């Protein structure tokens, strides 16, 4: 699974514009020719697809959960059921490729005009899936736009290597990655791959096998990758990105006061602030939303920040939110860029409204899905002894990434810098941030509330 978390503004715009996300709503599009329901083949792959469709189309969360468990798929069942509500059931409208263990096919959502290019492949042993992808077909496109040939595979490899040679944070690792993927190409390991989704995933896996860098990845966009512009994103790109941030409320999901009731001896009830946000957005667009959330919880007695589903974002927003948690100017993190040999420092700064302050207790909730910029926030506060970290060890990605166009349909996210904490002189790359209190992610909130209650008991 590719992860883009710790990104520059340009990369965020490029990725948001170029990457096709599964289960998203689109403008109306014509249904492909031959869109009547088709019969699935009687192969193992066909039977597995039928099993998935039966579970998905039933709308039964238990049945869908059993399917994911059987095939060892890590999925958020709550998120999948919300997507099920949006898409409705799926109908198979075409078979694009059929082999005993592999099926490439197109499905149509019953609730919308959307279609999606879908791949399921069963691994040897019949207990896991090698591939399980669903990628929306953009308006005006078809399954044919997912097809690639040998010339495309070679071009993507060579252009991707050129970007790694130029910018990847560790030049020696870039050279080893180049040798590895060229060897795969020469041996014919990619010859059977005829669609861009699978090829991007396979090359990403091969690059990461050498680098172990979860920020690094190749992506495929059937609608086309926008041109890189020397002057930055176009006004249209910025407008689309702004609308997307507004729709997502800049990543902020909850800002609330958990019920009072923690009453210290002889004191007033203690109110606990709870803040959940799922990415660190661009401050140029989202600083007011972040400030509104932080001002809302400013008068609470303790604060819980839930980053269990936060995949990262921009270091500027990490510093901005952190500024509400300190009374004095504080050095948070540095980023060193390979190509320029320049180190950029990140400090807390002036922010509008009232700060939560630097003395009241803060608890940060983490999971293995906490990644990148969310890890920086956690790592900074842990090293500064400003927060108690509760949950699971985080994902382990400390290299900011920038997107580069390879060709009309492929791009590569290249980690170009590394974080250097001013206290540890290191970072969390490859190891994650270890919590102070290790508990399963699902138990982290209750654990934080228990620790808060214990603080105020006589």
Give a written overview of the molecule.
- This protein is of the alpha/beta class.
- Among the domains are: 117 residues, Nuclear Transport Factor 2, Chain: A; 175 residues, 2-enoyl-CoA Hydratase, Chain A, domain 1, CATH 3.90.226.
- It is 34% helix and 22% strand.
- It is built from twelve helices and 16 strands.
- The strands form four sheets. A six-stranded mixed beta sheet has the order 6-7-8-11-12-16, sandwiched between helices. It has a four-stranded antiparallel beta sheet with strand order 1-2-3-4, covered by helices on one side.
- Strand 6 and strand 7 form a beta hairpin.
- The longest helix has 18 residues.
- The N and C termini lie far apart (48 Å).
- About 5% of the residues have low confidence.
For the structure shown, list the relevant keywords:
458 residues, alpha/beta, Nuclear Transport Factor 2, Chain: A, 2-enoyl-CoA Hydratase, Chain A, domain 1, four-stranded antiparallel β-sheet
